[in-house]
Amino acid sequence: MDEVHEDERSAAARLALIEDQQRLVSRAVEPDPRLLYGAWGVAWLAGFGLVAAGGGRDPLIALPRALPEVVLGVLLTGAGLVTVVHSVRVGRGLSGPSTTSAVLYGWSWVLGFAALAAVNTAVAAASGDPAVAELLSPASAGVLVGVMYLFGGTLWREPVQFGLGAWLLLTTAVGALLGLPALLWVMSLAGGGGFLAVAVRCASQRRRVA
Amino acid sequence: MSRRASAGPSASASDAPGLDPVIHAAARLRVVASLASLPGEDRITFPRLQDLLGMTAGNLSTHLRKLEDAGYVEVTKSHQGRTPATHLRLTPAGRTAFEDYRATLRTLLG
Fold this sequence. Notes:
The complex is a heterodimer. Chain A is built from seven helices and one strand, in the order αααβαααα.
């Protein structure tokens, strides 16, 4: 038996062992981006699409009153629950600096949206014009989501996540300037489509590594 | 550290010189590799690590003790309410040993 070859074989086996174990651990302790971006992508695409097509004063399709908004709310809540449950699951048993960052980042979403809901309610009440709330609610939510992804991309040094945040900010800003119902179409197709494009990208990256 | 770098008389032919015997055992290598892939200086609880490795608690404890004795793993105990929890983390020395070990393997492959 050639000893040098034997050593090389066992070194290669050791490296493979290390790589396999590290991939297993990384995938177990990091949130699955395909699931999270996928859930938000579907919620935005279907939810905002339904409100764009079936809501407002001049709907494309006739739907029971408030049904599109209710469906949007259910879809967004569902995506939020998927995110929270999945993130808590993958993070169980972990503590330390990056886990602290992840927990504080999670709370940033909760606090941001709670404050935004209060401000939007106040603005709608003060303006007395339902058209203000109809434009402000999706537009301000889109901006906050975009900023949170900029922040997330910065925190985890993920240019793709940062890029998604920039894309959501740009499309929401353009959509808001176009007014309703264009904003809702933009958030459905460009926003939801953006989430899904990132989900697909993450899926193909993962296949390449596997 | 030189104490550990020199392979003892029991070392077999495949124990190439320079490979740290503390992490050369396959089970301990998997433990160290797992801890090394946690981000930054994060800690992991004993049961979660056990779950990721698929080892028995007794087996994992034995390996962790060896790694702790070598100064590669830091073990801290805490109490969450009444439940005691054991948290594990790779020490800087442990991380260096792992990086060195991996670099040595790569050199062996040429």
